[in-house]
Amino acid sequence: MTTLRFVFDKEKVAAAGKTEDELLAPMREHAAKYGIDEPEHGFFTKDGEDAMCVITMAVPMIVENDPGYINFLSKWPLNVDGEDEDCIDSSVRWLRKHNIIVC
C-alpha cells in the first residue's frame, strides 16, 4: 500500500488567500487519471503493482509546476509499505540542486 498525505499549514494557506481544496486540485486531477483513492481529505492511497509509481510521480509534478507549493505544507509524508519519506525534505533538496529558491 502506498499513501501520500497533504497536511497544510492553515495560517499560510489563509494568508495567501488560497484554500486547501484549491491546493489539492492538482493531486485530485492526477488521482482521477491513475485510479488513486482519496478516502480522507488530503489523504491519497493506492494498492497494487503500480501504486508507488503513480503516487510518487505526483510529488515532482506538483513541485515543478509550483516550487512555492511546499511552503503551504506542514507535513507531506509518503508511505510505501510502512516506510515513511518526507516529501517536503526531498523536494527542497531537488529544488536546491536545480538552483530554484523556495523558502
Describe it:
This protein has five helices and seven strands, in the order E-E-H-H-E-E-H-H-E-E-E-H. The protein is α+β, with helices and mostly antiparallel strands. The chain has one domain (2-97). The strands form two sheets. The chain has a five-stranded antiparallel beta sheet with strand order 3-4-1-6-7. A two-stranded antiparallel sheet has the order 2-5.
Instruction: Describe the global form.
Output: globular
Helix proportion range: 40-55%
Give the termini separation: 32 Å
Q: Please, what is the oligomeric state?
A: single chain
The helix count comes to 5
From the alpha carbons, calculate the radius of gyration and give it in angstroms: 13 Å
Quick rundown:
The chain is an alpha+beta fold and 103 residues long.
Give the helices and strands, then pairings.
Layout: E1 2-5, E2 7-8, H1 10-15, H2 20-34, E3 37-40, E4 43-46, H3 51-56, H4 58-65, E5 73-75, E6 77-80, E7 83-86, H5 87-97
Antiparallel strand pairs: 1-4, 1-6, 2-5, 3-4, 6-7
